[in-house]
Amino acid sequence: MANQNTTSTQFPANLPVFKGENYDRWCAQMKVIFRFQDVLETVINGVVELDANADEATRTEHHELKKKDAKALFIIHQCVNPNIFEKIIEEEISKGAWDTLKNTYGGDEKLKGIKLQALIRQYEMMQMNDQETIAEYLARMLSLTNLMKSCGEALSDRSKIEKVLRTLTEKFDHIVVAIEESKDLATMKIEELQASLEAHELRVKQRSSNKAVEQALQAKIQNKNYKGKDKWKKREESENSSKNSKTRAADPTKAEAKHLEQFKDVDIPRKGITCAWFVFIRVNFKAKFVLETQS
């Protein structure tokens, strides 16, 4: 039955809708709305039946109270979902609807005691996770302590602060020691603690971010230098290889001499060899050597 739209200027937008869970939280929100609309007393005390012999002034006052009661009942209808609305549909006054919800979902003292024991155990086992921020962890802890308060167990700010300081992760060890040494935990507020821890958290994140950027730049520079050195090394090897090839092609007599060295001990008869034959051999050898060196 919830209506999320703002009606003229009388009701705030996004009214809290009760879905059967977290009744105490919803109840606290509803009381604020009732005070804003000046109908809280009407919801709690109800409207007394008008006496048959009442005078005109009393009748006028009673009529105004009935209008407030109707407004309060309308607000309750707007702040419950259809399943919850079925349980209060027959109630004709706001007090009746409010008391029905309280008796159904508020729980008696015995049920609250059982629920409180479970909440206390959960509170004692609570630790900050590595992935959590300070804001997320404190919100989780305060949500739990508020549930404990609704069951009759109210914790002081000092108890909450000491719990937080005991259960933070290792990266907050230095700031924890500083707070314990410099602050008076008896007078410190949970808001002050959150501000100090979030400031430290922000510094740690900034330093980690700067360090990551520096490492990335350094790795990029090293990679670029390595590629440059490798490029120049390959170019130098290519130039040396080309230079050696040109040197061998330009001066084949050394290789020729080396090749002919193996025939120096061979006894070649000179009488039957003409000058033309020597020229033929030398010309062919030179041509063959030049082709081999160029290929």
Automatic annotation (TrEMBL):
Keyword set includes Coiled coil: yes
Coiled coil: 183-210
Region entry Disordered, spans: 226-256
Pfam families: Retrotran_gag_2
Biased composition (Basic and acidic residues): 227-240
Key words, A-Z: Coiled coil
Protein name as catalogued: DUF4219 domain-containing protein
